[in-house]
Amino acid sequence: MHGAAYWPKEIRRADRISPKTGATRRLDRLRGTLARLDPVVANRAWREVGDALQRITDRYTQ
To answer: DSSP assignment, residue 31?
Structure first.
Protein backbone atom coordinates (compact mmCIF):
# COMPACT_ATOMS: atom_id res chain seq x y z
CA MET A 1 0.00 0.00 0.00
CA HIS A 2 1.37 3.39 -0.95
CA GLY A 3 0.58 7.04 -0.62
CA ALA A 4 -1.69 9.02 1.63
CA ALA A 5 -3.93 6.07 2.50
CA TYR A 6 -1.19 4.03 4.19
CA TRP A 7 -1.09 5.56 7.66
CA PRO A 8 -4.82 6.08 8.22
CA LYS A 9 -5.52 2.48 7.21
CA GLU A 10 -2.61 1.16 9.26
CA ILE A 11 -3.74 3.09 12.34
CA ARG A 12 -7.35 1.90 11.99
CA ARG A 13 -6.10 -1.68 11.71
CA ALA A 14 -3.95 -1.25 14.82
CA ASP A 15 -6.85 0.36 16.75
CA ARG A 16 -8.92 -2.76 16.11
CA ILE A 17 -6.20 -4.86 17.75
CA SER A 18 -5.90 -2.70 20.88
CA PRO A 19 -5.68 0.95 21.95
CA LYS A 20 -2.02 0.45 22.87
CA THR A 21 -1.17 -0.90 19.42
CA GLY A 22 -2.99 2.05 17.82
CA ALA A 23 -1.06 4.50 19.97
CA THR A 24 2.20 2.82 19.02
CA ARG A 25 1.40 3.15 15.31
CA ARG A 26 0.55 6.84 15.81
CA LEU A 27 3.93 7.37 17.48
CA ASP A 28 5.61 5.54 14.58
CA ARG A 29 3.95 7.99 12.20
CA LEU A 30 5.02 10.94 14.35
CA ARG A 31 8.60 9.65 14.53
CA GLY A 32 8.75 9.43 10.74
CA THR A 33 7.41 12.95 10.39
CA LEU A 34 9.73 14.43 13.01
CA ALA A 35 12.76 12.71 11.48
CA ARG A 36 12.51 15.07 8.51
CA LEU A 37 12.44 18.23 10.64
CA ASP A 38 15.14 20.36 12.16
CA PRO A 39 16.56 18.55 15.22
CA VAL A 40 15.75 21.44 17.56
CA VAL A 41 12.10 21.44 16.49
CA ALA A 42 11.92 17.64 16.65
CA ASN A 43 13.39 17.55 20.17
CA ARG A 44 10.91 20.14 21.38
CA ALA A 45 8.03 18.19 19.85
CA TRP A 46 9.20 14.96 21.51
CA ARG A 47 9.41 16.75 24.87
CA GLU A 48 5.84 17.99 24.43
CA VAL A 49 4.65 14.51 23.46
CA GLY A 50 6.42 13.04 26.48
CA ASP A 51 4.84 15.60 28.80
CA ALA A 52 1.38 14.91 27.37
CA LEU A 53 1.84 11.15 27.72
CA GLN A 54 3.02 11.58 31.30
CA ARG A 55 -0.10 13.61 32.15
CA ILE A 56 -2.31 10.91 30.61
CA THR A 57 -0.43 8.17 32.48
CA ASP A 58 -0.74 10.06 35.77
CA ARG A 59 -4.46 10.60 35.25
CA TYR A 60 -5.20 6.92 34.65
CA THR A 61 -2.90 5.46 37.30
CA GLN A 62 -4.33 7.36 40.26
So the answer is: H
pLDDT digits (tens, 9 = 90+) for 3-61: 788 989 999 999 999 988 998 999 899 888 889 989 999 999 999 999 998 998 888 88
Angle at 26 between CA 39 and CA 58, to 5 degrees: 90
> Structural domain tally of the chain?
1
Q: From residue 20, give the alpha-carbon distance in Å to each of 16, 17, 35, 38, 40.
A: 10, 8, 22, 28, 28
Considering Cα of 59, then 24, then 46, then 33, what sign does the dihedral take?
A: negative
Looking at residue 14, what is its pLDDT? 94
Domain ranges, residue 23 = 3-61
The three-point CA angle 23-26-62 to 5° equals 30
